[in-house]
Amino acid sequence: MTLVDPQTAEYTAPDGWVRVCALDDLEVERGRAALLGGTQIALFLLHGPDGAAGRVHAVSNLDPYSHAHVISRGIVGTRQDIPTVASPMYKQVFDLRTGICLDTQGKEPKSLHVWPVAIDDGHVLVRWEGDR
Question: What band does 26 get if pLDDT is binned at 50, 70 and 90?
Answer without folding.
Answer: very high
